[in-house]
Amino acid sequence: MAMRIASKSAGAVGEEARVRAKRADFTDVRANNLGFVLRQVRAEGRCSRADLAAKTGLNKATVSSLVAELIERRVLRESGSVIGNIGRPAVLLSVDSGYYASLGVEVNVDYMTLVAVDLAGNRLLSWRRAHDGAGSTPGRSVSALAGLAKRAVDKMDAEGRQILGLAVAVPGLIDNGGVVQRAPMLGWEDFDLTGRLRQAMRDPKYAVTADNDANLGAVAEQRFGSWAGVSNMIYLTGEIGLGAGLIVDGELRRGATGFAGEIGNLLIDVDGRVGRVEDLAGISAVLKTLSESEDIAGAEVEAEVEDVVTRARAEEAGVLEALDRIGRALGAGIALAVDLLNPEAVVLGGHYQALSPWIAPAAERELAARTHASGAGGAEIVVSALGHEAPALGAATGILNDIDAGRMPTPLGA
Length: 414
Prior knowledge:
By secondary structure, the protein is α+β, with helices and mostly antiparallel strands. The protein has 12 helices and 18 strands.
């Protein structure tokens, strides 16, 4: 009898586990379908339920159910109608851009940037503030971050928008738990950024996350840049530090613990000069070679770069020679990354954008000469159209990507 009872209990437990697994499978499938429908509407701009059924291959009843949930969650909205083929008006759907907002902030050595976007990806805010990140303690930087974010939250609240999340871009090594293990330009080490920021913002209801600035710049470029939608891309930050965000097979690759993409630490040899890519080709190398400032970390970096650009336009021989040498060093570093990852595009971000007329041609020549595959494996060096805004925009955009993947928000009061 005891054995029969035990056997029956085991069977009951097994059946319960199967039911739970089935429910989980159903939940996953529905979440995937919600994301699928949302992405289709986003791609089309406006479309009807019948269009969605035809384009997604889902039956009309399923599409109607998914659309109803997306409208209830304030993700889609009905936006007019058109006359169908048989004279019946078809109600059109579009992304609901009027209710949610996501926030992205970048902290760097001499500035902070904040970007807010709606669910359609439209910019609601774009702020840039001077900030002495190199000379501030981590605590002071968190206070400045929290103050800037609170201003944005208050403005979004006044417009009746619900905050989806806040993400922070940092030039350093950040683990998957949001701890900045090392950000040498900021002087941060083993700093729990997300924990301290949540505390400073009084534990908000939305998620607070952090990631490397190059990773988030790559996210922005993939969605909004001139190479939007490309499946294989390398994004180079072009700030005082030099990092790379990696898009591989359409996905951002952070690595096992979040530290992938540290291209600045690769060793290169250019004209007998051996060193790290960052030391020979980073913006720090530009300023150390051509700037009159003695303290590069504390310099007004943008003003110093603008001065270099002015001198290059005036065709100062020493400046042109130095920029060509730095461009070749950058191309040597890019060639190593291209041989390893075979991207379609290498995007120059940050201050590289302003310097690109002088460094990009030299980098392209070096890339072509050094890569193993002919024609650099099809890789092109291109210049970002997003500029310094890219990491903050990518921070805000990553939240939208989560929703596109099916992790749907719930409106307040729902």
